[in-house]
Protein 1
Amino acid sequence: MLNVQLKHHINGHLIQLHLHSEHPKIYAIAGVSGMGKTTLLNMIAGLRTPEEGYIQLGGRTLLDTKQRCNLLPQARNVGYLFQDYQLFPHMTVLQNINFMHPDLTHVETLCRALKIEHLKHMYPERCSGGEKQRIALARALSQKPDLLLLDEPFSSLDDETKEESIQLIKFIYDLWQIPIIFVTHSKYEATQLADEVIRISS
């Protein structure tokens, strides 16, 4: 179960997000740049505190501003794929993935599922954009999250790689059966992947 209620002022306007579902879904938060879409993901992840907010995930309360409840990011069990992936250049692919979780058996399973086993001992600079996305996704999933957040996950990919990545996210959703929230400015990406589209406007 996922219940998200957020209100926050940014750039002179109020942004609001209302999600409620008893079963996992893929949500797209759509809208033009500068409307606060990434800010909403950061609030869900615990990286920023909203003016008003309530988040419940799988029976746990992650945030309740009225009750002064605000779990730290590491206590929320939320996976986050950042727009620029934020891979550590001085670490190998395997070290990047293990940075979040030391469970090597789970990491090996992820690498097989995401087809990046052959990259484990390489460094990120030698990997393509699509490969970097899979590595960052493996790191986000390494902690076995209850929710996955994706910030503009397809923005830096060419058309062919983008189509492969859309299918990859669908595969992850079917395999893990956890809710996914992704940010996009693309109507195509939203309609291709999301069960529900939330449009952010001023």
Protein 2
Amino acid sequence: MARRRSPSPPPPLAPSLRSDARRNRELVLQAARSAFEEAGLAVPLGEIARRAGVGTGTVYRHFPSKEALFRATVVDRVRLFTDTARELAHADDPGAVFFRYLSAVVRLSVRNKGLCDALEGSLEPSPGVEEGFREALTVLLERAQQAAAVRKDVTIDDVMALLMGCLSMEQRRGPAVAPGRMTALLCDSLRPGRHVTKLPQNPAVRRNETGCAACGGPVRVSRTGRPARYCGGACRQRAHRERARARTGT
């Protein structure tokens, strides 16, 4: 009995077909970048295909969904923010570095609706990318706090929420408002100083801690005796000097 031959593998794609596929994929990516930049995730996939000059089926052959196409267009930009933050992790003057970095992220993102959507978490661009950005920004925040350039009661969740709010405000500012004004207000809200508003205690903070009356940092409550108001001697002395100046009017 003659042995049945196994089916031969399909012939490889011709070089011209492979080059056409690569060209179509790049056209789709270019069209998607501009479309997502203008409208974010709300842009229809058919509009992207129209801008690329290809059919919707061609888009699906390269990207199984609009979400996958979105990830491909913004993941590199979010990673660029993350890589930049990591490069600045040991830079001198951590306070100035932190504020310049926040300002740069807002300035580079505010005109890109897709990037704003990615940073806001409407859709994570790729597994681990948003977490990597938060971790890198956390390092800059903690170094700035150690340098006494940022309030000690500020958390990374606070910074992320303020960053998203700042992007929204910069996008919606009127023509009479100068670009970057909202960003400057954001940065000032994070700086320590006199007469700053004491933040409500974060529920995640342990119940046996309270906020320092001078700097807002955590103060461990003693089990016995009168609860402490300050995190240390320096804050206690500063509060004493301010009370003395208030009494004398100087």
